[in-house]
Write a structure and sequence with these properties.
- By secondary structure, the chain is α+β, with helices and mostly antiparallel strands.
- It has a single domain, classed as Beta Barrel (M1 Pyruvate Kinase, Domain 3), CATH 2.40.33.20.
- About 15% of the residues lie in helices and about 35% in strands.
- The chain is built from four helices and 16 strands.
- The chain has a seven-stranded mixed β-barrel.
- It starts with 5 loop residues before the first strand and ends with a strand.
Length: about 240
């Protein structure tokens, strides 16, 4: 972080090629008007999901955190499943494997979109300092991947500093700018361990956020100016 005026830097970039599955760490990525290139382009819909609610039931979502999508050079997405096998995400074999191995016996349908199928905003950010503070408050190590952010920031000085950027525009690297829109209200997904999502959920983390941080951690953003970004890029206030 040696750029003049830099307030932070990108520690790591994560995209989620298949919604509700594990994330993929990338060294560099194009930031488009709609979010990170390749982020949440695929999603599965379940016949067992509550009307108007999430695409999958909570049990299905927990299990799918064990599946690792990988974007191939040609843009296709392969998924490495817990057995070690790999399937193209849009193949009949992928659907058959999910149907046989997910805990619910619901009908699944794959959706594919040209832009990220995000729930609220196209980009999410959290600082590693915020995660460390939550680890301190919890008296146990919290895996940053629980928060499923796109950008993990190294933001010196103060945990939850990213909250102060709400309403501001920041620049990432040479050309990209994003607008920080709101603090991120958290759902039960953060209670699932990304390494072993089938163990007991960490509901005490949700309780801590509700009690001490208005149920929020990290921030949502929209993209103002697209551009390439990479790990280590400096972040500066642009307004």
């Amino acid at each position: 972080m040696n750029q003049a005026g830099a307030i932070a830097s990108i520690q790591s970039i994560h995209r989620y090629p298949v919604k509700s599955m594990a994330g993929e760490v990338v060294e560099r990525c194009d930031l488009t008007k709609s979010g990170l290139h390749g982020d949440r382009l695929y999603a599965f819909e379940s016949s067992g999901a509550p009307a108007g609610m999430l695409r999958l039931t909570s049990r299905e979502r927990r299990e799918m955190l064990r599946y690792q999508p990988i974007v191939q050079p040609d843009g296709s997405v392969e998924v490495r499943v817990p057995s070690g096998e790999q399937f193209l995400v849009d193949s009949p074999a992928m659907l058959a494997y999910l149907a046989a191995h997910l805990p619910e016996r619901n009908k699944l349908i794959l959706t594919h979109a040209a832009t990220p199928q995000t729930d609220v905003r196209p980009l999410s950010l959290i600082s590693v300092q915020t995660v460390r503070q939550l680890s301190t408050e919890m008296s146990q190590e919290i895996d940053p991947r629980r928060f499923r952010a796109n950008l993990y920031l190294d933001l010196p000085d103060t945990p939850f500093k990213e909250d102060s950027f709400v309403g501001r525009t920041i620049r990432i690297g040479p050309t990209a700018t994003i607008c920080i829109r709101e603090r991120d209200p958290r759902c039960r997904f953060i209670t699932y361990d990304p390494e072993d999502p089938l163990i007991d959920p960490l509901f005490s983390l949700m309780k801590l956020l509700d009690r001490s941080h208005q149920g929020r951690a990290g921030v949502y953003a929209t993209v103002r100016n697209p551009g390439p970004i990479q790990a280590g890029d400096a972040i500066c206030l642009a307004d």
